[in-house]
Design a protein that fits this description.
The chain is mainly α. Helix 1 runs antiparallel to helix 2, helix 3 packs antiparallel against helix 7 and helix 7 runs antiparallel to helix 8. The radius of gyration is 28 Å and the shape is elongated. The two termini are about 25 Å apart. The C terminus is likely disordered.
């Protein structure tokens, strides 16, 4: 519950900042469109351009202005949602950040051991249930919990878990021999069908929880890698589109290109800028997903690394 709430708070905060950044981009685009409209109006007055050019640019300005109210409303709703998550009154609640540029994601260090997943609430609960049923949790871990490095040298998913979440690489059948390993063999023979079924269910649930934990890590690390590659490409696209629009606007003023060429260039820039902001948001949300998937962070303190989870405090 705590991890889920923390994830929701972080994501909602990032959504607010991304919307504010998109609002700023939209307003800048409206300013540029109005600037071009003024030039077009002057050209029409001087007989250089037609009323068709003027109507096209007026349409562009109106279309950009129509986007703004929706983004403003989304930002307001996101602020209210964050306030509620924090237990604050929505009215008057605000955050100081205006964009995502100042947010730097923590570095995911290489070689994070899979043992950190034992701090995930679902894994801890599944092990507590086994222990409460007098199971040998170490035996269950040996059967279903691979000890591998989760991250490679680049901080993304390691080769060790690449394909590990394939069901064929996990033990999927819970037979009597495995139950005898995890539970007391003598007691197992004396169990009735209901008790045996309960033990089988506990082991099957533990297996499923572990599989889900490794799958979450692989998925979220993959999302960070993918979004990072997109950010590199989109950043270059925005740079090139900005320069192209600057040149196109000068050429339109000088009469060497028509209004449609300029409008296409402006639309390409706006689309690239908007996509970049949304991809930055996706990257941050993926980082938060990694934090949750790892059970509360991607770093491990020295005492945490040396810690061996103790089960004897759990009530029977």
């Amino acid at each position: 519950m705590g991890l889920t709430t923390a994830q929701s708070v972080a994501n909602e905060y990032f959504i607010i900042l991304s919307l504010r950044e998109r609002i700023t981009i939209t307003r800048q685009n409206i300013d540029a469109a109005n600037r071009i409209l003024a030039v077009t109006q002057a050209k029409v007055t001087n007989g250089v351009s037609s009323n068709l050019d003027l109507s096209q640019q007026q349409s562009t300005v109106a279309a950009q202005q129509a986007r703004l109210p929706g983004l403003i409303e989304q930002e307001r709703e996101a602020r209210y949602a964050l306030a509620i998550l924090l237990g604050r009154a929505p009215e008057g609640f605000d955050v100081r950040g205006q964009n995502l540029d100042g947010i730097v994601s923590p570095v995911v260090r290489p070689g994070i051991p899979s043992e950190v997943l034992t701090r995930r609430p679902d894994v801890a609960q599944a092990e507590a249930n086994l222990f409460a049923a007098h199971a040998n949790v170490d035996a269950a871990r040996a059967a279903f919990f691979p000890s591998v490095g989760l991250t490679g040298s680049t901080g993304y998913a390691s080769s060790a878990i690449d394909g590990l979440t394939n069901p064929g690489n996990f033990v999927w059948s819970v037979g009597v021999s495995l139950l005898q390993t995890i539970f007391d063999g003598g007691r197992l023979k004396a169990l009735d069908d209901a008790a045996l079924a309960n033990q089988t269910q506990l082991v099957a649930n533990y297996r499923k929880v572990v599989f889900t934990a490794f799958s979450d890590v692989e998925t979220t690390l993959g999302q960070t890698s993918s979004s990072n590659d997109q950010l590199v490409a989109l950043t270059e696209q925005v740079r090139a589109s900005t320069e192209a629009f600057r040149i196109a606007e000068l050429q339109y003023r000088e009469g060497t290109i028509d209004i449609l060429s300029l409008l296409n260039t402006q639309q390409s820039l706006f689309t690239a800028q908007d996509s970049l902001v949304q991809t930055k948001l996706q990257r941050l949300e993926a980082d938060v997903g990694v934090y949750r998937a790892l059970g509360g962070g991607w770093t491990q303190q020295a005492d945490d690394a040396a810690y061996s989870p103790q089960l004897d405090w759990w009530p029977l």
